[in-house]
């Protein structure tokens, strides 16, 4: 499995970077694997096993970089993939309760027909695909989605 890299721009100060680190730590429920807050350009790196970048599913490194040469993207460069639509909805509700800003609200984007049994019967519980796009503290767009065909491994979601 390959590892994809996503770079999000952060304003060039340590206070903003600290807020971004705290936000992504809560959002992904993992701590950063690397952090540099001593010498510019400041950065932090997070790793997840359930990301979609450019249509490719797999491991993802999310780099937060305080560098003015990194462009501010207008679309999500990364979709965090959760196991089912219930987890997507729960994540949305937690973020909404924390007054997160959204680029797009929770939406059902696809419904799969109910499985009739056999090898595909596990699909019945996850017959709906939902997504939303949240804005991180620097205004970068981060998508959250579920894929009932290829579900990621189990993860613990923050409450």
Descriptive terms for the model:
8 strands; 2,3-Dihydroxybiphenyl 1,2-Dioxygenase, domain 1; elongated; alpha+beta; 159 residues; 2 helices; eight-stranded mixed sheet
SSE map:
Elements: E1 3-9, H1 14-28, E2 34-36, E3 43-53, E4 56-65, E5 79-82, H2 85-97, E6 101-111, E7 128-135, E8 141-146
Parallel strand pairs: 1-4, 5-8
Antiparallel strand pairs: 2-3, 3-4, 3-5, 6-7, 7-8
CATH superfamily: 2,3-Dihydroxybiphenyl 1,2-Dioxygenase, domain 1
N-to-C CA distance: 30 Å
Assign a percent range to the helix content: 10-25%
- Class based on secondary structure composition and strand pairing: alpha+beta
Reported by name, the CATH topology is: 2,3-Dihydroxybiphenyl 1,2-Dioxygenase, domain 1
Broad shape:
elongated
CATH architecture: Roll
Mean pLDDT: 80
Largest sheet: 8 strands, mixed
Instruction: Give the amount of beta strand, in percent.
Output: 35-45%
Count every beta strand, where a strand is a DSSP E run of 2 or more residues. 8
Radius of gyration: 16 Å
How many separate domains make up the residues?
1
Identify the CATH class.
Answer: Alpha Beta
The ordered string of helix (H) and strand (E) elements is: EHEEEEHEEE
Low-confidence stretches: 119-124
SS field, number of helical segments: 2
């Amino acid at each position: 499995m390959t590892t994809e890299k996503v770079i999000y721009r952060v304003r060039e100060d340590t206070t903003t970077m600290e807020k971004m680190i705290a936000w992504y730590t809560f959002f992904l429920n993992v701590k950063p694997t690397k952090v540099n807050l001593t010498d510019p350009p400041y950065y932090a790196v997070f790793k997840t096993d359930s990301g979609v970048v450019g249509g490719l599913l797999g491991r993802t490194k999310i780099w937060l970089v305080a560098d003015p040469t990194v462009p501010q993207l207008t679309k999500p460069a990364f979709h965090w993939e959760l196991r089912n639509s219930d987890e997507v909805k729960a994540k949305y509700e937690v973020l909404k309760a924390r007054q997160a800003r959204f680029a797009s609200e929770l939406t059902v984007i696809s419904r799969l027909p109910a499985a009739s049994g056999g090898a595909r019967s596990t699909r019945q519980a996850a017959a709906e695909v939902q997504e939303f796009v949240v804005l991180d503290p620097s205004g970068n767009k981060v998508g959250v989605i579920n894929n009932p065909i290829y579900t990621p491994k189990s993860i613990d979601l923050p409450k």
